[in-house]
Amino acid sequence: MPQASVYAGPSSWRSRARRILPILRLVAMTFAILALSRPQLLWQEKKVKADALDIVLALDISPSMLSKDFDPDRLAVAKRVAIDFVEKRPYDRLGLVAFSAEAFTQCPLTTDRRVVQKFIQDLEVGRLEDGTAIGMGLATAINRLKDSKSKSKLVILLTDGENNAGYISPEQAAELAATLGVRVYTVGIGTEGIVMSPAQRAPDGTYFFAPRQMAFDTELLQQIAARTHGRFYRAYSEGDLAGIYNEIDQLEKTKIEVRTITRTSEIYHWFLGIALLLLLAEVCMRWGFLRSITV
Q: Between these two residues, 6 and 282, which has the higher pLDDT value?
């Protein structure tokens, strides 16, 4: 009895281990059959070719853009809608020009929408001398486009007042745009009549507000748009402005050509390798440490 108990343990363990040999062979055969079916990985690669546009946003940042007929003011709404417009133009190059009595390039043409949106968000009234130089704003925007090789070059000029500053007239700037093939969409923002608007600037840079009669030169903006084969729009509310940008977005669609490339990769060798490993394991176990078992 003592001798029987000594050999019962190992013999019993090996007997149980031997039961998995048919399972190993069955699994190996399964993987071999799968390998014979030549499994493949299939994926598609899309290559986008875009006939992109070059677009410069020219935004008025004169003090009147803080008028309270929009919530919270005209500039805040103009920035919000412009940021949304930029988001919809993933393939275009966009730039930003700001103007009041002077004009400067806030952001040169770039395909990085996040950069343009950040510059739009950072626009503030008071950085430049007070006034409204529409001609300067337009000329600066055109200057960013003069070396562009794009087939379509646009300026979206948004203002809320009359031209009263600058050494380049709006008419001269419009003529330059027409010569260079730049199309200008002009947008007049703001309601007419008495509006709470900046009346005086404090030493700390803040503004005192008072009811003021707002003037607007619709005819000038219409002339600029007509001379450059663009369009003139009037925005009396945030909804109007959003609709205007949506219309421009639809009118000036980027032509996109999408080419799909299908590729395959053979993976049968992975299944064959697993089958061989399992068969090798089965043979080693059968003729190795399990060989001494008598069935």
A: 282
